[in-house]
């Protein structure tokens, strides 16, 4: 018999009081008398995990996001019991846990409240009235700002927004549209000049509310799964971002060519069209390293096949393109055409690798090839099989990179544009429904692709690009921001998305330059290229049904602007490669929003347009038509205008004049910017000179240049070169010291040193403490020196 109380909707439930606690090395368990357990795990002094169950026991602890190869450790952990609370202390934070309601309060060592529970953990659990929702609410502090969350197409500062994480194929999305392709449930809070972070590692549909519903409350919740989050203490935003990136993992170094310029369109075919495009790049001398084949290269959109009509001899074509410096990248989608004569379909069917509906049949959905089945990439055996499928493409045909699309997963002509919720997934042995696996499906596909490409490209490095991704996907793949639009608003969105992705651990990202949907004007395309060359991933792509979108589609002026900026990117390759190496090494994001650069300056908290590219170059795109320049904010420090060399003091708003072939670019004083000669593709020419653009400063500044063989894995065996340049400027002196690590021999043996903005006349030069004889140095008219040895100290005296 059903009683009334059983049918009654209970609404929110709350933990009751703590009745006991127990410590097991780095974890402390708090037990309540209504089956809630809070498990607090100290991973580092500034990294604490909070995990709750409402069942009285914890299920298997499994996460795709956490990088298990990373180590953690703390200096201090003390747990004390007081009459009304417990206190957990590390060397960085105190964490108070109330006995009567399990609310959590975190303070830093100075006693400043950093993050405090409002209601804290609560949940709904009722089959008749809406299922299972786990919720968390925090008190938001005065003047608090919020950042992060991956690819959101909205203001960089998320204060006042409510956001949703459910990977979605969002064609021609617009500003503030939710949800989008990626799921990064990580945010940074900043108040009283102190930053902290939260990573809510829950793959169900999640929501974040930053003072949108209630002015003083930030909250997050999930439609299933556990309340399971990591807290990061800064106080610097850079510490939060680095620790988050360390926790969810960093990529390996990509081959240097992937940092070149890429050309794409839906679709270049047949072979003659592809060749026409690549030849035109060489003819116009616009550098380019990669050419993409979209879905039409396949036979009826069947993955791992080639259209015999359009591409009769792929191996020959790919080799010919490679001879001309072009790397071929091909698209691979998750949908496998239901076709009993198609070997990939046959194999997957035989081995039972396709996803099934709850009551048994295979998940069927329409995508480009027509009706398809979909591999369950959350099954390790399926990933292994999928990886093996790349043998022919990579090892035999010579394709250099793979592009994973439609992996939200996208399904046509159905409500919700994806799988139904009842679809089953293996989830690495933790069987579950699509409600839980949806958000990581794309990441697991990209991971399987990465494993395949890596295996067959060896000893070269793999390259993968994905559309959908969950936290941690950066370990396997780069990404792009999906189907944007050729509009000025989307140029603004692209700028923000790339900064946001960078501080969300997923730095190797770019937008479709020029816009995917609709046709850009020449002016918009030029402005987009001018920004795009400063994004980690730099590719023009378009849907192709609105006209041409190659650099030469918009007339001479745009060709020249494109060439100028793509050439600049190629000159800056050692700088770009070094910033990538820093990302790989310690999780430093490649692009830094101004708030990341100087969080103590309140003016930076709501800036969106300016960003720091690497460590020493500041970029501000032009985001409007007919601009003669723009207003912008220059953060702390002194900056040289890259084009005019004018020195400007920062921490102020200013107007900057620009011509059509310029955008505001500034170089931090004291910087030494390394440059290669312009090449049409990475490795095109042998060169014997590294250019160092030196920007004088009164005082000290460090600059780095990381190099290796540009591909392969020898750098892991010490075959890299890391140069540290220390610049010291005095009244009438400039000293540049160089320290070199690693045993990679760079191909060049000379340095061309451009002494920009020297405030004095050169009187005498000493190299490694010896007065220079002229065969070791040539002074050119424009304050540039050629030095033909690996110096350790260059000392310039002025008068
Ligand atoms: O339904 O492969 O975002 O980059 O060119 C469209 C064709 C499928 C969507 C991708 C886009 C790609 C296109 N794809």
Automatic annotation (TrEMBL):
<keyword id="KW-0378">Hydrolase</keyword>
<dbReference type="InterPro" id="IPR011013">
    <property type="entry name" value="Gal_mutarotase_sf_dom"/>
</dbReference>
<comment type="similarity">
    <text>Belongs to the glycosyl hydrolase 31 family.</text>
</comment>
<keyword id="KW-0326">Glycosidase</keyword>
<dbReference type="Pfam" id="PF17137">
    <property type="entry name" value="DUF5110"/>
</dbReference>
<dbReference type="InterPro" id="IPR025887">
    <property type="entry name" value="Glyco_hydro_31_N_dom"/>
</dbReference>
<dbReference type="InterPro" id="IPR000322">
    <property type="entry name" value="Glyco_hydro_31_TIM"/>
</dbReference>
<dbReference type="GO" id="GO:0004553">
    <property type="term" value="F:hydrolase activity, hydrolyzing O-glycosyl compounds"/>
</dbReference>
<dbReference type="GO" id="GO:0005975">
    <property type="term" value="P:carbohydrate metabolic process"/>
</dbReference>
<dbReference type="InterPro" id="IPR048395">
    <property type="entry name" value="Glyco_hydro_31_C"/>
</dbReference>
<feature type="domain" description="Glycoside hydrolase family 31 N-terminal">
    <location>
        <begin position="38"/>
        <end position="209"/>
    </location>
</feature>
<dbReference type="InterPro" id="IPR017853">
    <property type="entry name" value="GH"/>
</dbReference>
<feature type="domain" description="Glycosyl hydrolase family 31 C-terminal">
    <location>
        <begin position="587"/>
        <end position="673"/>
    </location>
</feature>
<dbReference type="InterPro" id="IPR033403">
    <property type="entry name" value="DUF5110"/>
</dbReference>
<dbReference type="Pfam" id="PF01055">
    <property type="entry name" value="Glyco_hydro_31_2nd"/>
</dbReference>
<dbReference type="InterPro" id="IPR013780">
    <property type="entry name" value="Glyco_hydro_b"/>
</dbReference>
<dbReference type="GO" id="GO:0030246">
    <property type="term" value="F:carbohydrate binding"/>
</dbReference>
<dbReference type="Pfam" id="PF21365">
    <property type="entry name" value="Glyco_hydro_31_3rd"/>
</dbReference>
<feature type="domain" description="Glycoside hydrolase family 31 TIM barrel">
    <location>
        <begin position="251"/>
        <end position="579"/>
    </location>
</feature>
<feature type="domain" description="DUF5110">
    <location>
        <begin position="689"/>
        <end position="756"/>
    </location>
</feature>
<protein>
    <submittedName>
        <fullName>Glycoside hydrolase family 31 protein</fullName>
    </submittedName>
</protein>
<dbReference type="Pfam" id="PF13802">
    <property type="entry name" value="Gal_mutarotas_2"/>
</dbReference>
<dbReference type="InterPro" id="IPR030458">
    <property type="entry name" value="Glyco_hydro_31_AS"/>
</dbReference>
